[in-house]
Amino acid sequence: MKVVFIAHRANYLKHYGPIIDAALGRGWDVECWLHDAYLGEKEYLRITPTTITDHWGERVVVRLFKQAGDVSQLNTRYKPDAVISLHSRSMYMQQAGMECFITLQHSVDLFVDDTVEQLASSDYVCLYSPFWLDYAVEYYSTANGTARDQVIALLEGKLAYTGFAQMDAFAKIDPAEVRARWGIPEGKRVVLVLPLDLAGWPGVWPNFFQKQGLRQWYALWKARKEHGFVSKFWQWALKGWNDARLAEAMKQFAECNNAVLVLKGREKDPLRDAWAKRAFNTYYDDKHYPATVFEAIAIADLCVLFYSTAVQEAVYANVPALCIDRPNKDIVKHHLWRRADVGGAYNFPGAVTWMSIPEVIKRLPRTSLSTFGMDSRARAEYLALYNGPADHRASDRILDLVTA
After folding, report:
1. Structure confidence by residue, pLDDT tens digits, 60-116
2. Phi, psi values for residue 304, rounded to 5°
3. What gap in Å lies between CA 237 and CA 185, rounded to an integer?
4. Per-residue pLDDT at 37
5. What span, in angstroms and rounded, lies between the C-alpha atoms of 45 and 386?
6. Does this model's pTM top 0.70?
7. CA–CA separation, 19 and 334 (whole Å)
8. Complete domains list, the chain, with CATH
9. What is the spatial distance between Cα 139 and Cα 134, in angstroms, rounded to a whole number?
10. Is 229 in contact with 204 (CB distance < 8 Å)?
């Protein structure tokens, strides 16, 4: 068997790495077809042959393409048995070939990037769990008015509920080794924070939230034309609820619980000084497989986030999560997914706690870390609903589709 993985960015390896290892473990031929110089102006996103060979050596064959249409030519020439992609077949090929084309879910972005008609061009669409078909129906109905029956009819026979393949990487991580490599003091617990993203968000709230003192009041005054903003946030300015106060509350919480504060950021939104100067250590994406964020989660006693999809990763790794509320983008995927409803992915008692920013500033410094324990039943229910099985075998279930 020959299986091909199509990659546009280095972070695609977060999704593909466990499946590549599983395919090599079966003795299959593996190739990675890489988008040559894609987003080359952002070096941290760029994927090159070295990205592959540094990890798998010569066991994985690398080929380059310059535009999506070139994939069809590679497919005709090298005749793989299967192609695995984060995108649909229609992005690369106008017609079906002899290969089995498998599209992997990459959180909510699968439905943003591809219409249901495009997804239907693939032989299989691998979703984490049945919940995501319901999400797809709701998303396509809200985004473009596609009827439920049409979504289900187009995807009939295409869907495979395989679980969350990238999570298989947790089986390869030794938390003790990561703690030693990162210099975590013996006996110290770890509070991991994935700081809130403020760069590139629309509206006036990010600017207001980063200001202090009179500057925050001035930012509030400048925002007076945004409907409802002043009435909602004047108390924040009065009480000094801002980015620095939030970071300080998190630092105090860690210190009171004999823990170190570790930050995992992303290069597109550099860690702000208010957070970095209060942290024991900070990290970006130093590697993509196993991903740096997975290593950080693996050693964490609590994962703090702001509607990040890392919430699913934390629960999979048996790490309780705290989701802190923040104003949302006015985008369909955010309205449908980033919800505070009890039972939702970001507010699931026993696994994921939800709090507002004012609550965190006022209460968290005096809160015991044990408050955020993981309940085994809640975790099992969460995984069954949002992730699929936590058995490190999602990669094998995907590959089984090739020989089905």
Report:
1. 999 999 998 899 999 999 999 999 999 999 999 988 888 999 999 999 999 999 999
2. -105, 130
3. 37
4. 67
5. 27
6. yes
7. 29
8. 2-164+391-400 (3.40.50.2000), 173-387 (3.40.50.2000)
9. 9
10. yes
